[in-house]
């Protein structure tokens, strides 16, 4: 028997929490001397009010789905992967190399090739910490943090000294060949005779992200491997009893996690920038932690949380672009959303439970 | 509804010598009503037993008395005075001490540190520690409660950990001592020792409440006994005026068989053959020394011994895993095939493929994933069995219907396969594990402590199932620290001491004293002939 | 490398390790009490901002310090509320605090000073200045040891000395006082403390608040001693490094000293030898910059075994499910 | 109205974004006009911001930073009637003005001055992230130093490899101390917010520092030797002033066009001797008439000195 109905648990609680977060954000905006109502209007219309806004919202969402899934897969195995940032950076390198040095005949093949390369590079960057954890007992939280820094250094070196065209000021690769251009949603929509906001970065990678959600769901909740990952994540002695190898699961889970983080590069490097620049991940790896935790490590939850953060990113971007509110306000709103829906959700849940208990006893 | 021993509590004035009076205590956890209107009166200077099935609400009631939980309603009188027990501090002040079923010790603290925790004399530890050291010496001498004050808890045996818990209460000058299933983890000798201590304490005028599932213990040490069922207090009687059978019936609400009926064994071909098995753990301690053991089809071999003498290691090695860094030698054959001791081929999966079932000693740590739903746990270890698979995916429907069947056949309560394992009581968790392992009809079943902390009804049930499996032709290795269990269930008894098999006996031809000697490492008379 | 260079490197290491040490000890109190804290970074950042702002406004570094501590305490209270009272997820709360500090400092800074999140430069008494200890003249003449006194021990700001004193103090508090005993117990097995009649929440709050105070010192040290004012994101990942050092130190105070010193030392070395020339190849600056991280991994993999965190860490204490 | 887009470092980066902002403000103060400004917050926004501004009719649109190069190449042809100006890189489009600065020239002069001011014969350079742009500063500086004192030593440090490299005054200060302990007594910082820490530490240690991008002499009067000023403000100011008539093509901002310069004001006056003034002036004249050609690191990714 549950303390309150399921719908209240998974819908009502987050919604009230979200409302609280926005309420406080409004107070912050007010304190800055701006009009919160106007700000909300800018954010909502900017992010959701047009296909153009959606084009950006969904682009960011795509990034966050990948990094969020990455964190959640590792989390199910009891591993806290803070290294999404570095793994996505390396994924970018893989995607760039695949796009630059393989003459792809068609984008669809390029997509598959680049996805494999990105995933492989990201997986490799997670493999080392995983191996160190499994075999040497090095704490994965430290090693993944360290690998973020090392990835930044490595990419810096490679871009500046190896991949940058001579004479270019920009520490970035040359543009990828046209054949690797991924169709954006607006192009796809146009081919069906529909209109979707021009020049928005959302592209077919969104479909890949949704597939990844489905894949992770099948993996974690439907497959034998997922069963073993979850069992290991809950209890190592029990896993041993059941014949589940801790080394194997640690490495596999981290490789999948790193691969998912690496896949993000298909979206931002191949789909959007069409070249690899420094710091292309832009903190999405860290947002992935929040997305995964808020999404309760369930692919569907991750999808919703990624959408929420996509909205905040785009809506907040619009706010910073078109009003005098500094862009850091978005960071604050994100923080409040994470805080209220993630860490303080009992603030809402406990009174709600009491309310439902009273109603049940009353009736 | 309930009555104090002899007369009702109202008929005698409270001050006439009740150490504890509980009146109309109720407590629910969310939708679960753990205690309903409980009345209980315990005369000063007595040992009062409380029995009841798993989940009957015994622990909850005692936790309320100790201030760990707060009751929804009801009142508590200590020595006739109404006291408000709002937290454990107030209970301690009222002279109550409690030894929980799951010890509340800090594993990496020393004994002394655990003793003074919460009862320090001042802001600095040193004075408290030295006072406690002296006090401990005194208590140890007075009550035979020796324990090394500087040892870390994690290095102590469970029995010693329990002593620490008792010492904690005595150090706080408890007048009323509550013990929640104290003997579940003790060897018979340790349990006897504990009872001696309890009697000593009682004779000093202290009041003791003892929760246990073992009727023998109730009959042996208690003065009065109360029976709980499904959150209610169903009876309180003088121990001298009742019998185990009556108590068991009161508890379960039906007749129970205290002894499992079982036909004589008809052993067949050997299933398990262990030759010269030795193991040295990574700290260089020899855990198993040259163990030889054979178990045949249709026979139950009980492995008796004080815990910590290598039984755990033996079970783990047979189950396919052992602590990393251990050195192993010797030979294990199942149905004639040698099994690898270590390396990639030695894991639970391979052992299951070799038709070995395994009920581990610790159901919560090893046997179950506590957060998994029951239907996921009833496939645990068999996740790659063909009937649960559809390619790389698992067949949830098949798992669920399989679980529903097992739950029905093993009378798991509540019969809800969706419930997480942690939400079942200990006995029902154990039934889930036993069902999973027995129903696959393994050629060899390893069973570790099958009834630890399990109530009488469930014990009866689990024992029956084990005997049935034997009768279907399986070989069974039963490891237990309960001599009663070993004696009533085994067809042959092997005794383990310090990693060695000290000897084998037939249950009918041995005495508890004989076994006790072997368990202590002494070989009494010439060993009996083991049937070929 | 000559002796003087060595001392200069150690001197630099001492300065660089100080914020790490404060933050590491901060994390130690919190995590030893069972509250995981990846929000060290955010608390330090908030403290850095508040201390710089108040030091600028009042012209007093000490007032800045107090205010900085208060700022970090505010963040700690949020973390405590989330993870103790409301039994929320401690990791999420930590992440949120990092975001919150990162955004709020710039928003407030921009609102107050209009410098895009920077505070104005601090000067004079608004900063902690280096203290020259007595007798440097005489002691400095002693061979070998003298230069250590002059170069490394003397000439640090007062906060450095406080940081180093915090190590034995923490050890003493943890292992010699009633409070420390209870704090460690609460991180290992909160039920043991609860059944002893002591409030788990109260001890955990105390730990989290001490964590705030130490993070406050770390942040104030960054903004008012090492630098002269606040710059956005000026903690630059030091909170995460402190966390790594904490795990490295296996949650023990003396080890924390060595772990943070190691991090400081490696950074000082990479500062001092930006283009390490190894005969035929010159290591590029990028890799010298990453050296501390690479070495950390090598050391962890090679020499430090499994670090076992406090057993009750990360889980809220719930007795009635 | 004209518009200005700041790069990811933000408007107040103590570096060229801030200089651009000052130029725009100067234009606003002088003409009373108004302009739109945007701050980037992610890579994906670059194109969005450019297009949205172009669609609102802003003209010209000025953007700071080489990172806009690729995007502008894509966007400019779609808005042939809008003029764009990009700072720090060249974009070859008919409606784009590319403003490039001769950092090596200005840095060369800074090097000359540093070499003369240094008593120890050792000077330092502290860069932010190790990227080609900063190497242009470094190499020009080193050339100036060596040309003035061939025996001088130039210590070089870069702050880091993450975006934090631009925002870490603590590390900047520590690097300055490390360089001082190796003998440096003049340190040139080209490191954004990190440079603030360098200048501060230099002042604390009583050695000289050289600021960058905007005039930072006032930060520690009498202790900042000079600042290598990139007149990004002028570039923005001029572009705004030209309005839709903005001249396209490449605009060289060098010594000759006063696009780069050493800042000389009351704050550093006491530090500058007549000899220094003479040497700097001489070098400046030589550069202007081509007698000296400071090498541009970018042309071959190498630096002739060191
Ligand atoms: N902390 C808790 N939260 C929720 N429910 C609980 C909690 N503790 C006990 N219960 C429920 O209260 C009921 C009584 O449990 P309790 O542990 O008191 O039984 P018990 O008689 O001690 O059983 P056992 O013999 O297994 O120890 C059970 O149904 C149990 O599910
Ligand atoms: N959400 C829940 N709803 C109902 N009962 C619960 C819930 N969570 C836990 N329980 C009960 O709480 C009890 C926990 O108490 P405890 O740890 O004493 O277990 P136990 O039954 O005594 O097991 P064992 O005897 O094996 O130690 C369990 O019996 C379990 O049934
Ligand atoms: Mg119980
Ligand atoms: Mg029990």
TrEMBL record, chain A:
User: One GO molecular function term?
Assistant: transmembrane transporter activity
Q: What topology does it adopt in the membrane?
A: Multi-pass membrane protein
Q: Please provide, in alphabetical order, the Gene Ontology terms of the cellular component aspect for this entry.
A: plasma membrane
Q: Which InterPro entries match?
A: ABC_transp_permease (IPR001851)
Q: Which UniProt keywords apply?
A: Cell membrane, Membrane, Sugar transport, Transmembrane, Transmembrane helix, Transport
* Compartment(s) of residence: Cell membrane
Annotated transmembrane regions: 12-32, 52-75, 87-104, 110-128, 140-160, 202-220, 240-264, 276-295, 302-323, 329-348
The answer to whether keyword Membrane applies is: yes
Cross-referenced Pfam families: BPD_transp_2
Protein name stated in the entry: Simple sugar transport system, permease protein
Q: Which organism is it from?
A: Paracoccus aminophilus JCM 7686
From TrEMBL, chain B:
PROSITE patterns listed in its UniProt record: ABC_TRANSPORTER_1, ABC_TRANSPORTER_2
Domain called ABC transporter: residue spans:
20-255, 272-523
CDD domains xrefs: ABC_Carb_Monos_I, ABC_Carb_Monos_II
Q: Which organism is it from?
A: Paracoccus aminophilus JCM 7686
Q: What is this protein called?
A: Simple sugar transport system, ATP-binding protein
Is Nucleotidyltransferase one of the keywords?
A: no
Documented EC number(s): 3.6.3.17
Q: Which family does it belong to?
A: Belongs to the ABC transporter superfamily.
TrEMBL record, chain C:
Lineage, uppermost ranks: Bacteria, Pseudomonadati, Pseudomonadota, Alphaproteobacteria, Rhodobacterales
Enumerate the transmembrane spans.
12-30, 65-84, 91-113, 153-174, 205-231, 251-269, 290-308
A Gene Ontology term for the protein's cellular component: plasma membrane
One GO MF term on file is: transmembrane transporter activity
* KW Transport (keyword) present: yes
State the PANTHER family in the record. Answer: GUANOSINE ABC TRANSPORTER PERMEASE PROTEIN NUPQ, SUGAR ABC TRANSPORTER INTEGRAL MEMBRANE PROTEIN-RELATED
Name this polypeptide is given = Simple sugar transport system, permease protein
What are the record keywords, sorted? Cell membrane, Membrane, Sugar transport, Transmembrane, Transmembrane helix, Transport
Q: How does it sit in the membrane?
A: Multi-pass membrane protein
Keyword field contains Transmembrane: yes
- Predominantly, its location class is membrane
């Amino acid at each position: 028997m549950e303390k309150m109905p399921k719908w209240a648990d998974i819908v009502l609680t987050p919604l009230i929490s979200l409302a609280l977060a926005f309420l406080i954000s409004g107070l912050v905006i007010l304190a800055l001397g701006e009009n919160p109502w106007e700000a909300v209007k800018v954010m909502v219309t900017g992010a959701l009010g047009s296909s153009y806004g959606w084009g950006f919202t969904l682009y960011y969402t795509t990034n966050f789905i990948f990094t969020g899934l990455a964190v959640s897969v590792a989390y199910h195995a009891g591993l806290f992967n803070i290294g999404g940032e570095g793994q996505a950076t390396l994924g970018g390198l893989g995607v760039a190399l695949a796009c630059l040095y393989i003459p792809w005949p068609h984008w669809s093949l390029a997509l598959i090739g680049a996805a494999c390369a990105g995933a492989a590079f990201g997986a490799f960057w997670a493999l080392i910490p995983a191996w160190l954890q499994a075999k040497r007992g090095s704490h994965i939280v430290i090693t993944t943090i360290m690998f973020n820094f090392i990835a930044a250094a490595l990419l810096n070196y490679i871009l500046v000294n190896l991949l940058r065209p001579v004479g270019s000021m920009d520490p970035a690769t040359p543009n990828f060949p046209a054949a690797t251009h991924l169709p954006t949603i607006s192009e796809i929509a146009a081919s069906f005779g529909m209109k979707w906001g021009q020049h928005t970065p959302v592209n077919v990678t969104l479909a890949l992200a949704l597939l990844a959600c489905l894949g992770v769901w099948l993996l974690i909740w439907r497959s034998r491997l997922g069963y073993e990952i979850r069992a290991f994540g809950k209890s190592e002695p029990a896993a041993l009893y059941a014949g589940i190898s801790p080394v194997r699961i640690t490495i596999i889970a981290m490789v999948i996690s790193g691969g998912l983080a690496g896949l993000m590069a298909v979206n931002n490097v191949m789909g959007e920038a069409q070249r690899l620049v420094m710091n292309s991940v832009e903190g999405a790896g860290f947002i992935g932690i929040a997305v995964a935790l808020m999404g309760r490590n369930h692919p569907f939850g991750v999808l919703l949380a990624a959408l929420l953060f996509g909205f905040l990113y785009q809506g907040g971007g619009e706010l910073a672009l078109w009003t005098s509110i500094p862009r850091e306000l978005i960071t604050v709103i994100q923080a409040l959303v994470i805080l209220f829906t993630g860490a303080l959700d009992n603030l809402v849940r406990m009174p709600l439970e009491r309310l439902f208990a009273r109603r049940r006893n009353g009736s | 509804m309930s009555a104090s021993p002899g007369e009702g509590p109202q008929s005698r004035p409270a001050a006439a010598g009740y150490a504890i009076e509980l009146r109309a205590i109720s407590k629910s956890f969310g939708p679960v009503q753990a205690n309903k209107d409980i009345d209980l009166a315990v005369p000063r200077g007595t040992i009062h037993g409380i029995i009841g099935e798993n989940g009957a609400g015994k622990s909850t009631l005692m936790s309320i008395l100790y201030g760990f939980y707060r009751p929804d309603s009801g009142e508590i009188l200590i020595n006739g005075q109404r006291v408000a027990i709002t937290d454990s501090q107030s209970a301690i002040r009222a002279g109550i001490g409690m030894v929980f079923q799951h010890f509340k010790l800090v594993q990496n603290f020393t004994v002394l540190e655990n003793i003074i925790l919460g009862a320090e004399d001042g802001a600095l530890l040193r004075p408290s520690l030295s006072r406690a050291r002296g006090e401990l010496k005194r208590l140890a001498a007075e009550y035979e409660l020796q324990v090394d004050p500087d040892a870390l808890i994690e290095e102590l045996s469970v029995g010693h950990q329990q002593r620490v818990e008792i010492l904690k209460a005595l150090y706080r000058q408890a007048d009323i001592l509550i013990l929640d299933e104290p003997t579940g983890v003790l060897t018979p000798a340790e349990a006897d020792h504990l009872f001696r201590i309890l009697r000593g304490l009682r004779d000093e005028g202290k009041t003791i409440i003892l929760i246990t599932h073992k009727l023998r213990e109730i009959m042996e040490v208690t003065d009065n006994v109360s029976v709980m069922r499904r959150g209610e207090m169903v009876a309180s009687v003088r121990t001298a005026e009742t019998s185990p059978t009556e108590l068991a019936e009161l508890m379960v609400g039906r007749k129970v068989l205290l002894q499992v009926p079982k036909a004589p064994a008809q052993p067949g071909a050997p299933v398990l053959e262990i030759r010269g098995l030795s193991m040295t753990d990574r700290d260089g301690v020899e855990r198993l020394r040259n163990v030889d053991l054979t178990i045949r089809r249709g026979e139950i071999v009980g492995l008796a011994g004080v815990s910590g003498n290598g039984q755990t290691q033996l079970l783990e090695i047979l189950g396919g895993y052992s602590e990393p860094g251990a050195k192993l030698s010797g030979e294990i054959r199942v149905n004639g095939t040698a099994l690898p001791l270590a390396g990639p081929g030695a894991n639970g999966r391979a052992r299951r493929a070799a038709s070995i079932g395994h009920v581990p000693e610790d159901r919560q740590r090893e046997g179950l994933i506590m957060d998994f739903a029951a239907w996921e746990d009833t496939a645990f270890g068999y996740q790659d069995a063909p009937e649960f698979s559809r390619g790389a995916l698992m067949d949830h429907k098949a798992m669920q219907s399989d679980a529903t069947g097992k739950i029905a056949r093993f009378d798991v309560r509540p019969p809800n396969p969706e419930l997480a394992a942690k939400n079942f009581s200990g006995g029902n968790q154990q039934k889930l594990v036993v069902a999973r392992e027995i129903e696959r009809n393994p050629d060899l079943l390893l069973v570790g402590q099958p009834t630890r902390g399990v109530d009488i009804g469930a014990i009866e049930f689990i024992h029956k199932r084990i005997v049935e499996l034997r009768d279907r032709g399986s070989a069974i290795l039963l490891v237990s620290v309960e001599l009663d269990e070993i004696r009533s269930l085994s067809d042959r008894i092997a005794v383990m001491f310090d990693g060695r098999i000290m000897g084998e006996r037939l249950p009918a031809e041995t005495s508890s004293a004989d076994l006790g000697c072997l368990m202590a490492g002494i070989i009494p008379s010439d060993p009996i002939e083991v049937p070929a | 490398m000559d002796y003087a260079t060595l001392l200069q490197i150690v001197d630099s290491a001492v300065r660089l390790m100080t914020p790490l040490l404060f933050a590491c000890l901060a994390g130690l109190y919190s995590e030893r009490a069972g509250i995981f804290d990846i929000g060290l970074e955010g608390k330090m950042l908030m403290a850095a901002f508040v201390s710089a702002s108040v030091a600028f406004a009042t012209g007093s570094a000490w007032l800045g310090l107090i205010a900085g501590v208060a700022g970090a305490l505010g963040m700690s209270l949020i973390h405590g509320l989330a993870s103790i009272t409301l039994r929320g997820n401690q990791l999420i709360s930590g992440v949120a605090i990092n975001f919150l500090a990162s955004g709020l400092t710039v928003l407030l800074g921009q609102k107050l000073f209009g410098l895009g999140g920077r505070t104005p430069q601090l000067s004079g008494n608004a900063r902690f200045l280096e203290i020259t200890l007595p007798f440097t003249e005489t002691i400095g003449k002693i061979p070998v040891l003298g230069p250590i006194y002059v170069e490394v021990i003397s000439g640090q700001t007062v906060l450095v000395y406080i940081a180093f004193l915090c190590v034995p103090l923490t050890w003493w508090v943890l292992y010699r006082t009633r409070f420390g005993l209870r704090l460690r117990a609460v991180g290992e097995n909160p039920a043991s403390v609860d059944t002893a009649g002591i409030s788990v929440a109260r001890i955990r709050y105390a730990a989290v608040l001490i964590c705030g105070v130490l993070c406050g010192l770390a942040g104030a040290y960054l903004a008012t001693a090492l630098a002269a004012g606040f710059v956005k994101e000026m903690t630059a990942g030091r909170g995460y490094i402190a966390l790594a050092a904490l795990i490295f130190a296996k949650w023990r105070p003396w080890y924390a000293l060595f772990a943070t010193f190691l991090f400081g030392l490696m950074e000082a070395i990479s500062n001092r030898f930006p283009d390490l020339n190894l005969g035929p190849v010159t290591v590029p600056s990028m890799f010298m910059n990453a050296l501390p991280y690479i070495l950390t991994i090598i050391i962890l993999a090679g020499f430090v075994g499994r670090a076992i965190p406090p057993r009750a860490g990360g889980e809220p204490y719930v007795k009635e499910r | 109205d004209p518009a200005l887009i700041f790069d990811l470092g933000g408007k107040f980066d103590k570096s060229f974004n801030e200089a651009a902002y000052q130029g725009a403000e100067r234009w606003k103060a002088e003409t009373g006009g108004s302009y739109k400004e945007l701050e980037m917050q992610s890579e994906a926004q670059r194109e969005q911001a450019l297009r949205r501004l172009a669609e609102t009719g802003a003209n010209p649109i000025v953007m700071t930073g080489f990172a806009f190069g690729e995007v502008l190449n894509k966007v400019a042809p779609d808005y042939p009637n809008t003029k764009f100006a990009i700072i720090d890189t060249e974009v070859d489009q008919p409606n784009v003005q590319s403003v490039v600065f001769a950092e090596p020239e200005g840095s060369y002069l800074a090097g000359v001055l540093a070499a003369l001011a240094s008593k120890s014969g050792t000077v330092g350079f502290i860069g932010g992230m190790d990227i080609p742009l900063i190497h242009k500063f470094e190499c020009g500086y080193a050339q100036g130093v060596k040309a003035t004192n061939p025996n001088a030593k130039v210590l070089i440090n870069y702050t880091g490899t993450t975006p934090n490299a631009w925002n870490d005054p603590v590390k900047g200060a520590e690097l300055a101390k490390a360089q001082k302990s190796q003998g440096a007594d003049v340190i040139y910082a080209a490191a954004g917010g990190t440079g603030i820490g360098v200048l501060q530490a230099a002042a604390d240690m009583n050695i000289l520092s050289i600021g960058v991008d905007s005039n930072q002499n006032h930060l520690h009067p009498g202790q900042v030797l000079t600042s290598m000023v990139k007149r990004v403000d002028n570039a923005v100011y001029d572009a705004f002033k030209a309005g839709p008539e903005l001249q396209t093509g490449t605009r060289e901002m060098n010594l000759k066009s006063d696009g780069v310069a050493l800042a000389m004001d009351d704050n550093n006056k006491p530090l500058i001797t007549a000899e220094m003034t003479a040497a700097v002036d001489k070098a400046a004249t030589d550069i202007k008439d081509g007698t000296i050609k400071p090498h541009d690191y970018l042309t071959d990714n190498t630096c002739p000195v060191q």
